Write the structure tokens for this entry.
Amino acid sequence: MDFKSSETLVERPAQGPRSEDELPETAAAAVKVVIVGGFGVGKTTLVGSVSEIRPLTTEETMTQAGVGVDDIVGVERKTSTTVAMDFGRISLNDELVLYLFGTPGQQRFWFLWNGLFDGALGAVVLIDTRRLEVSFDVIGRLEERGVPFVVAINSFPDAPVHAVEEIRGALDLPAEVPIIDCDARLRTSSRDVLMTLMRYLHSLAGA
Amino acid sequence: MSGADQDWEEQSPERLYVITGGRSGASGHTTSLDLVTLIVSKAGPKPGMQPEQASIMRLCHSPLSVAELSAYMQLPISVVTVLLGDLLADGRVVARAPVPPAQLPDRALIEAVIHGLQKL
């Protein structure tokens, strides 16, 4: 099993949605959840496993915002870079639609976060235990923004197995933030990640 | 896609500049558009419309989010929101706003999401 990067998983249809992918006329409002994590951690896999549509890609052009934090050598003269974001959709009922956006966690992509997190219900931080570093900054940034989140550990076959509490310690997460194991390839597992986030949000709303 | 499109370098800044008439999306209706604002057109495309706007009219015969429009049209969000701003100002499309942030987190809303996910 190979967790491909988002660039290779997503097709870009030239036409509109297939008729079975169209939302009903009654669709009245949408909510969004953001899946954030490093490259290749399985964001698009997770989105794709629960989405009712094949994941789509939307692009945004990074201009000045990326200058100074982009660590790619040799692009100093380039004024714009295109960044892709993959997303999927779940119709929750006849009126309410949930969108799932996958976004890279690296600091140089944080400029994408403004439109993305405004109004988002919450976030899933998807981590690969082989590369925890990316997660530190992401978690700090989410806390700063006041975005509620849960942490999902995508189980890669060759990744070291850590106890959840060990991860909690490594990421310096408060006791109330849920951490769960998942297999982003499985619909039920990815759904459980979203359910964990929603139950957490529910507990926050009730406080 | 028309033949003229092939002369453009896809996604080149120049092409996008022409599509939006040189605007970058910071005024009027565009500021209130979220990635998940649902857009619905009130009628089909009219003859003589700019091709990109005609595409929006056609794609939004059933509700479609701004993000989906951007994906299907292969145009950046910022360009789509400029195009939508014009169509909204002209009353050709309507926007169904997302649940406003001020209402979040809302217990009833979260329960509706949980209920929806349980059916998956």
The first helix of chain B runs from residue 13 to 19. Chain B has a mean pLDDT of 82. Chain B touches chain A through 47 residues (CB under 8 Å). Residues 3-118 of chain B form one domain.
